[in-house]
UniProtKB/TrEMBL annotation:
Superkingdom of this protein's organism: Eukaryota
Name of protein: Prefoldin subunit 6
Coiled coil: 71-112
Alphabetical keyword list: Chaperone, Coiled coil
Length: 124
């Protein structure tokens, strides 16, 4: 495989990593929003009177829900979101490391390619 082909392949791989990283960052932002929203709901539960009625939106209808069930659902959701954030942050770190490796590979290939081009010019 020629240096030019290797350089093109490395550049394509780098661009794909950039896309994957962008998707992961977007996912992390969305999870952060969901986490904040659910933490607010959890705090609101603490402010409610013990006999307050809690409703759950199911489609276009508000349905009464047991307080214990609602609190448990939010707690489980928070736990799930936190685990997902952890997973996505790990993924982001891996993408960043792979991207840095690919970037170094591209720099080496560019240098080698430029040297090859200069040798050809010198031989002409």
């Amino acid at each position: 495989m020629s240096l030019q082909a290797q350089l093109e392949a490395a550049t394509t791989a780098f661009q794909l990593l950039q896309q994957d990283l962008s998707k992961a960052v977007s996912s992390r932002q969305q999870l952060g929003s969901q986490l904040a929203e659910n933490e607010v709901v959890q705090k609101e539960f603490g402010l409610l009177k013990p006999d307050a009625t809690i409703y759950k939106l199911i489609g276009p209808v508000l349905v009464p829900q047991m307080r214990a069930e609602a609190v448990q659902n939010v707690d489980k959701r928070l736990e799930y979101i936190r685990k997902e954030i952890e997973r996505v942050e790990k993924q982001i770190k891996e993408y960043q490391e792979k991207q840095e490796t690919e970037k170094n590979k591209i720099v080496k290939l560019q240098t080698a390619y430029q040297q090859e081009v200069e040798k050809r010019k010198a031989n002409v």
